[in-house]
């Protein structure tokens, strides 16, 4: 509703746009066929483009770590994403026990695997200005 009312500044500074996990459930179930997930993605991009700091710094750091993993390997490597997030968010110890349990149970793979053609993914990032070296 805030989009309809033109409350752009409040939206771009809102925690809500960073707390959405992007599951698309709201858009799937909306009787008016409003795809709020796409709207929220657009608002996040607008906030970043306009230099508005993310209201939820840790969530934004996780977003950056996720994209870095995709850039690097062409797919998500959970362990490197988690490590990068922990370091950049300066939250090294929370959930450490759960992480160790997941690693021991084989739910998190220690070594990353690159997809064939990872260079194509890296070129897509380069085309958007999110450059990374093609290795």
Supply the number of helical segments.
9
Structural class: mainly alpha
Give the topology string: H per helix, E per strand: HHHHHHHHH
Largest sheet: none
Count of strand segments = 0
Low-confidence stretches: none
- Oligomer state equals single chain
Characterization of this structure:
There is one protein chain. With 135 residues, this protein is an all-alpha fold. Helix 6 packs across helix 9. The chain is globular and about 50 Å long. The N and C termini lie far apart (45 Å). The model has no long low-confidence stretch (mean pLDDT 86).
Please specify the SSE layout and strand pairing.
Elements: H1 2-5, H2 8-12, H3 16-19, H4 25-29, H5 36-49, H6 57-73, H7 78-89, H8 96-104, H9 118-127
């Amino acid at each position: 509703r805030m989009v309809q009312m033109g409350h752009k500044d409040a939206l771009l500074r809102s925690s809500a746009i960073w707390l959405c996990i992007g599951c698309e459930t709201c858009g799937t179930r909306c009787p008016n066929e409003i795809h709020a997930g796409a709207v929220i993605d657009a608002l996040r991009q607008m906030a970043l483009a306009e230099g508005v700091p993310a209201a939820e710094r840790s969530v934004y750091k996780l977003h950056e770590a996720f994209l870095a993993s995709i850039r690097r390997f062409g797919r998500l490597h959970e362990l490197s994403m988690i490590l990068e997030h922990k370091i950049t968010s300066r939250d090294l110890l929370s959930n450490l026990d759960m992480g160790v349990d997941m690693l021991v149970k084989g739910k998190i793979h220690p070594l990353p695997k690159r997809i064939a053609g990872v260079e194509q993914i890296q070129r897509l990032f380069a085309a958007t200005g999110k450059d990374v070296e093609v290795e």
